[in-house]
Write a structure and sequence with these properties.
With 265 residues, the protein is α/β, with parallel strands linked by helices. The chain has one domain. The protein has seven helices and 13 strands. Strands 1-2-13-3-4-5-6 form a seven-stranded mixed β-sheet. A six-stranded mixed β-sheet has the order 7-8-9-10-12-11. Strand 4 (74-78), helix 3 and strand 5 form a beta-alpha-beta unit. Helix 3 crosses helix 4 (109-125).
Length: 265
Amino acid sequence: MHSVAAPLLRRSRLQTRKPLGPRLVEREVIVPGLDPAHDGIKIAHLTDLHVGMLTPARKILRALEMAQAAKPDLLLMTGDFVCYSPKFVGRLAELTRGISVPTYTVLGNHDYWTDGAGVRRALERNGMAVLRNGHSEIQLNNAPLTVVGIDDAITGHADHKKAFTGVRKAGSRIVLTHVPNMADRAAEYGQGLILAGHTHGGHVKIGSLTEKIAARFGNRYLAGFYGVKQALLYVNCGIGSSSVPIRAGAPAECAIFTLRAPQQR
């Protein structure tokens, strides 16, 4: 495992809002294989809202407002929308009702443990696409961009072969997966940007100790950018909490990326 943030990122900028969070992370990201036609498009990435007992609704609303305020071309969300009880699916529907940006999502383990079918229906009724081992090809700037969604691996729903069936081998590609380790499978299919969540960045991060503990439990990618074969993975620290309400060293975040095509040589 190695981070490749330094050579692949330019003009990094972090902004911190109120203590409740989340922080706004804005970066220009050079995406392997990105079609030059998509140079400059903007995406927002949110994950792990964890609508439930431990995540204040105002924090989730702030994250959604920050994402939309950036006026991205796409909003991409990588699972764990709810936790604890199916009664929170209704609250998820209310919180996401105002999203007007084209949105693509995958589900996470807490969604399936809570009410996977209910979460999917709530998101789809609000106009969001839920990719379950499938893909969608979008026309942006008169060129195709493929969004691939790998379903949750922890609950046994992931099928990367099905997700990539019919996906064009060349061109712009963004892969959504809740579990970062699925990046190893996704990268087998070529270049692109892979977005994930699940880890909360360690949630309470104590130097390198948290990363070592995470690796011992099989979580090779904890937070930030990693080179995985020819692809680039980003692991978002997420918004909410599912067990411990206090974060330290891994603040909640809303990520806004301006995509850049590699320079032609």
